[in-house]
Design brief:
The protein is of the alpha+beta class. It has helices spanning 3-15, 18-39, 47-58, 63-74, 105-118, 148-157, 179-188, 210-224, 240-245; strands at 82-89, 95-102, 122-123, 133-142, 160-166, 169-175, 195-202, 229-234. Helix 2 packs parallel to helix 4. The longest helix has 22 residues, at 18-39. It is globular, with a radius of gyration of 18 Å. The model has no long low-confidence stretch (mean pLDDT 88).
């Protein structure tokens, strides 16, 4: 199973826990708010909002919560969010790429830096790790009663680079520039993905012993628990043994 497919599996497992579910709701609310501020409240003419709403439905966010997030984005007096990225190394040469959405840049960088410092990591300059990751579109689609062969042909036609099946879901990978085409194709087919997002996929991963990997995952979870952090990408190899523990 490839790295992005593993991440899809992990996200579903994390989503089962109430605490994680609340955190996921918070992240999606920010996505919706930013999308409305950038492109307006009509999802038909705002692809980013349409995507954010789709992701909200994918984690079973109530309709009222979605509407409140849209209204928050329409409120001119509401806080304006900045989208920031931070890059650095943890122990064992593990690279981390952190995406944040915040209304207070100073608070966010201070929090991110403190985690690096506490766990003997190094916060680098923006762009210093971009060569280690490719930006890919990742779609998670429930298998349901789809005709597998026909579905895969449609996905390839829309630009799919890779299609994997795991635990009743298809994980579809596209080049970043084909993300919109795939989103449109799924809409035309009347298929609502559980999630659709741009992820940073490492070119190569680093395999650590189970104890070293546990320590790295603990630090990654520290980053993820920060309210300003939307996504954390890394190049730690997620072995089957490690996945079993998660």
């Amino acid at each position: 199973m490839s790295g992005h497919s593993k991440w899809s599996t992990i996200k579903r497992k994390k989503g089962a826990a109430d605490a994680k579910r609340s955190k996921m709701f918070s992240k999606v609310v920010k996505d919706i708010t930013v999308a409305v501020k950038e492109g307006g409240e009509d999802p038909d003419s705002n692809p980013r909002l349409r995507l954010a709403i789709s992701n909200a439905k994918g984690i079973s966010m109530p309709k009222d919560n979605i509407e409140r997030a849209i209204n928050k984005g329409k409120d001119q007096d509401a806080a304006n969010f900045l989208e920031l990225t931070y890059e650095g190394y943890l122990s064992h040469g593990i690279a981390v790429y952190i995406e944040c959405t915040t209304d207070n840049q100073q608070r966010t960088v201070s929090s991110v830096r403190s985690v690096f410092n506490k766990y003997s990591g190094n916060l680098g300059t923006n762009g210093s790790l971009s060569f280690l990751f490719d930006r890919k579109g990742i779609f998670s689609v429930p298998k349901g009663d789809l005709d597998v062969d026909e579905f895969e042909l449609e996905m390839i036609d829309a630009g799919a680079e890779d299609i994997e099946e795991e635990d009743g879901f298809f994980s579809i990978t596209t080049a970043m520039e084909d993300f919109g085409n795939m989103q449109k194709k799924l809409e035309e087919m009347g298929i609502e993905p559980e999630s659709a997002e741009l992820q940073r996929i490492p070119h190569e991963t680093i395999n650590l012993d189970i104890e070293g990997a546990r320590k790295i995952l603990k630090v990654i979870e520290m980053f993820e628990d920060d309210d300003d952090v939307q996504n954390v990408f890394h190049n730690l190899e997620l072995t089957d043994e490690l996945l079993a523990e998660m």
